[in-house]
Amino acid sequence: MLKFSFLRKNALILKNYTHLTILQVVNSFFYLIIYPIVIRTIGMDNYGEYVYANSICLLFGLLIGYGFDTHATKIISIHTNKKIIQAELFNEIFTSKIILLAAFTPIAIGAIIAIPALYKIKYLLVINYINVLQLLFLTTWYFHGIQKLHIATTIQLITKIISLAAILIFLKSENGVYIYSLIVAITNLTSAILLFKKSAKLIGIIPKLSEFNKAIKLMMVVFPYFLSTSLTSIKHRFLEIIIGNLSGTNALAIYDLAYKIFSALSILTSNINAALLPRMAKAKKNIIAIRKIIFLETILGLIFIVFIYIFGDYFIKILIGINSKEASNMLMLLSINILPYLIVGAYCLFIFVPTSKYKIILANQIFSLALFLFVCLAFYSYHWTIYSPVIALVVSGMCEILFCRIEVRRNKTKYEAI
After folding, report:
1. 8 A C-beta contact, residue 152 and residue 140
2. What are phi and psi of 219, to 5 degrees?
3. What separation, in Å, do the N-terminal and C-terminal C-alpha atoms of the chain show?
4. Mean per-residue pLDDT for 247-252?
5. What are phi and psi of 286, to 5 degrees?
6. pTM of the full structure
């Protein structure tokens, strides 16, 4: 009876977690499924070139996405029945993204023209920039906030199945790297537009531009959190760019394989904080409950690392048909990063964000990025291997946990009652 009472009480959290997990399964396992097909057809070097181009475009995507998602999810989850507030937020985010796109696209074009390494892959960059355009319409945050992620999951699943069929039909030769890039980009854009139209319909509005000053005001509100979250993503994009420049596109393809396996296998654990966010945004929290969450997430993270250590080689062999020591070692190193992902995520979402300590989050990420670059520089100066930037990523991530623990202990009284 107690079991059923617990399930009823937490039904929305469990439902939200389930759909978040399915959504990530759709996105992560799709690329794992097609990985052997793509590698055999276009080759490791061409695929590594695609990953490199995509990483460059994702840097601009960070600037245009601007970290609205967490802020918007929080607002929508608090005002699930207030359509006027939802409509205003929807249009303000849409307008803000248009402003950001107009500001940064000329810079992207200038970089492609001015930098020889980018001009060499200009066609791949132009195709991959479609993934930046789709951020204008991506409204997953709305479905997360109203706790109806099954809608977003269904739309993304259908478009992914269609793109899989297109890849099987049209991907025939090494030059197919352009076809592959175009199929992925168009799929993402189509999915985003469908989500945009569906969310607008649920709110009951025709999307329009908001007042310019309101869009700017929203950007100012989100700016501190944008800085902190973007630095995390920038660190990962830098890692890919560093590997591509210093170790080659073949090494980048190997890293991408390890990262895709890590992402797919970490789905069950990585969605916990996101699933709890709508409930925690409404509830009165206390530091003891949050400590319990962090403790449980630490145990889950350690179990995940052991799981990767035991079974990682098997997953790699299934995907590429052979054992790869380099991919296996990268996967093992990446598995350690599940700990900062979970623990730092819990500190930020459940302690620092509710108390508006955005500067603390930002300081942590600046420290982490600086440490990452310092460790990379140290490796480059003394002994560089393809593992060097991944080790730097792990070191910086573990220091993020230490930073959060020190901050909470140093200001214990501020966080006792949140």
Report:
1. yes
2. -60, -35
3. 32
4. 89
5. -140, 155
6. 0.79
